[in-house]
User: What shape does this take?
Amino acid sequence: MSTADKFKKVIAHAKEYGFVFQSSEIYDGLSAVYDYGQNGSELKNNIKRYWLDSMVKLHENIVGIDSAIFMHPTVWKASGHVGAFNDPLIDNKDSKKRYRADVLIEDFVEKINQKINKDIAKAKKRFGDAFNEEEFRSTNGRVIERQKKIDEILNRFKTAMENNDLAEVKQIIIDNGITCPVSGSKNWTDVRQFNLMFDTKLGSVSEDADIIYLRPETAQGIFVNYLNVQKTGRMKLPFGIAQIGKAFRNEIVARQFIFRMREFEQMEMQFFIRPGEEDKWFDYWKDLRMKWHKVLGLGEEKYRFHDHENLAHYAKAATDIEFEFPFGFKELEGIHSRTDFDLSQHQEFSGKKLQYFDPELNESYVPYVIETSIGVDRMFLSVLATAFEEEQIKKENGKTETRTVLRIPPALAPVKAAILPLMKKDGLPEKAREVLNELKYDFNCQYEEKDSIGKRYRRQDAIGTPFCITVDHQTLEDNTVTLRYRDTMEQERVAISKLNSLIDEKVNFKNLFKKIN
Ligand code: GAP
Assistant: This one.
């Protein structure tokens, strides 16, 4: 199955099993806006809990806040978003499709990169253990040529963006013969800047109303509360403020399901530090965030760092943690060294001092900031797309059937255990409800008595439930049940009294956190 086909199946599965619905679907939907269903919202909440706990429980110097979506309009002038939160857009005159010019160029570069990777893979196969990638890259004529082309394009693009030279951005597209993926033509409009913020009006009488923005990042809610938290929490540098909340961007091209949305959720943490220590803390957070991802077990090879060529208006250094989505490696999380840019800007625009008195140095300064920023929805997609599997299994009668299973990391699974009476009689439902009552205070459980046991197993596999607990006649005699494991489909007989600890061992965040710390 091609990755594109698999992705289509993931999207269909997400809808069929109550994970993700198109917003306002009965009115034909709203572009790039989605709702989370009964299973999706559980998975999403678990992702958020995994993130927030890893921040505030594992670090005694990180606290969480929940700031408002609406903020004073001057916040966005100070932060630079009014002036600079733009994407360069370009239209293809034949297909009438709109693109981000930077994405067209990046995709073109990625294609060249893939050719290099193919050359390397071929050479590796030919030379076996004797293969030295570094040497190959620096001596193979074709690879050198391709790499030179990549560097040229990226340097040209970087300079063009730094100089806000949109004519040059268009020229890069023309010179490299970049075509519209839909029409295949090179018939492009000029490139122009497009501000991504949504605005609305505050106040009941529209003439007197002030324009305010829906926040495009949650980070500014943290910056404007820096002093409140520092003073009321008596925080000493270094310390962090974490927040989860909605953000809104009028994305030019919103595609790829929940990867790029117009309303989405971010998990951001601003770590306030002493100036001069930013490189040390940048490396610290890069390392820690990567570990946080990898312990989930989706596959270490699915993650990589990508350092930014084009820095956002606030950043001194920035790297992405990229994940291998069904449509290739793309940004999952950003780690940014934001210097004292934001606090200094807010200090200037508000006229309020946002400094820290450092008792060790006996001086006051505006702290520097390292930011970690991840989209909940992207994280959700990374989990769902990787977890989705269709496997062929042999039935007892020798025939094969397809089992659709979501191998969601158990700690994130929406439902942890399903309690299933084998039959709807002989006191089995009552006994099964007793088991449910024992477990429901600790885990999100489902009780199901409809259909054959095989069908019920399949339904639970399809939503990623790691444990199925079957109550049968033996249960009535000796208080044991059959515990079935989602991934292996193995079954074992266990005492009801052991269920809680067996499930907890696999689903408690604690065991993941111990691997990070
Ligand atoms: N405060 C910094 C900031 O907002 P960003 O790289 O623009 O940085 C951070 O966004 C993260 O937010 C991204 O890595 C991504 O996971 C998520 N994100 C950004 N735009 C998004 C969108 N339109 N839809 C879904 N997630 C998005």
Summary: The pocket of glycyl-adenosine-5'-phosphate is lined by residues 217, 219, 249, 251, 260-261, 264, 266, 268, 331-334, 371, 373-375, 377-378 (CB under 6 Å). The chain has a mean pLDDT of 94. The longest strand covers residues 328-339. DSSP finds 18 helices and 23 strands in the chain.
